[in-house]
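Q: Here's a chain of 491 amino acids. Please give me its 3D structure as tokens.
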Amino acid sequence: MGLFGGLWRGAGRMVKLAGLLVLAIVATIFVVRAVDSQRGPPLDPWHTFVPPELSRAELDRADLAAYLAAEDKAFAAVRTHVTDDLTPPERVRFNRYFAGSPIYPGRFAQDFNRTYVLEPEGPPVGAAVFLHGLTDSPYSLRHVARRYAARGFLAIVLRLPGHGTVPGALTRTNHEDWTAATRLAMREARRRVGPDKPVHLVGYSNGGALALLHALDALEDPALVAPARIVLFSPMVGVTAFARFSGLAALPSLFPAFAKAAWLNLIPEFNPFKYNSFPVKAARQSFLLTRALQSSLDRHMRAGRLTGLAPVLTFQSVLDHTVSTRAVIDELHARLDDNGSELVLFDINRNTSFEDLLTARADTALARLLPPAPRRFRTALITNAAPGTEAMVLRVTPAGSTQEAVEELGLAYPHDVYSLSHVALPFPLEDGLYGLKPDPADAFGIRLGNIAARGEYGALVVGVDMLVRMSSNPFFPYVLERVEAGLPPRP
């Protein structure tokens, strides 16, 4: 008894010490974060105002008309409480909330922050629902949506709750709201085209996770609209480890004096169709969404139900600083049946004058990530014909095969671009906002894709890394080719 009692007391002391250590770590994070949050600019009206949105229960009862009516109210509230109430110092040229700004979305022929529907010519052959990324807007998938509409599809390009209005909206939005909005859009798609025509689901980044989660939920719930095809751009199947603990960063914001601790980034809002500022809660919700997705994938794998999942077409850059390329391959595609799914990978540019400056991890990413053939999905790798050559080729390996076919692509990396990025994939080089060679007719008051900023450190309101990140895709014509390959013939 004495021996066991001593062991029990020792274990108790260890538990107490562990508890004290955890408290010390949390206290340290609290203090460091509280002090750090006091730096930088103060919170602006677009950070503190939260426009009204439909609740999760209301989303599950609503149709698209009700959603659009609620959306109108949200944008009207932003106009009243933010735009019309700006102080003189806030009425600056590149503030998207200033009505006199060239980037004010309300001045454009179409405000791509809002949900919109593209009608095809003639009766639709099907419908497609488009889900944008976190802090993003319906703008990001407009080029793909237009191609769907040109091929006879009704395209519903959804604004997810908390997006398109003000960054402050994301301080109240949960990932369950996004999944409820996805269900709403899929119901609308089915209603508009009837029971016998295909409904596709297209997701970008965070929207990719939503698309997959909805498709998995539909395998279990016949009341949900199951997609006939899933198209993903840089899908958020897995995120960085930081997101798991990001919620701790907001702890000091429980006290009003440290309200800025609820934000990971406070950056001027000079992008008309995407938030620059990023609240801690948004990072936390993206992590919770990916955790729900991975839990669903695991559950379906154990039950053998992935067999019913629609074919998945995924476009993914080998280098991606936002989502895990390994998770896209190992946690998603490696688990799929041989059902016509395809993974398109964009390799780094192995013909740059600064290739030797790339890290070893970047240079060897492809070899580490892609498992050897045979695979249960078609793989198309876009890469240089050989190191040091400009010509790009497709290396295509069919599902279940070890035979690789090499095709000339007829497209190339610009000479000063070393890779694509998480954000680049759904945008052509000619995109007016993000393109490297923007179309002059596609004008939104600012061109973010071809900025070549040179000067001294510390002078800009954004980090230089934000300006050098590649934001358009020189291989976008091939993207459209692969998307169209899975569409029914034109009527």
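Q: Can you summarize the key feature?
A: The two ends are 84 Å apart (CA to CA).
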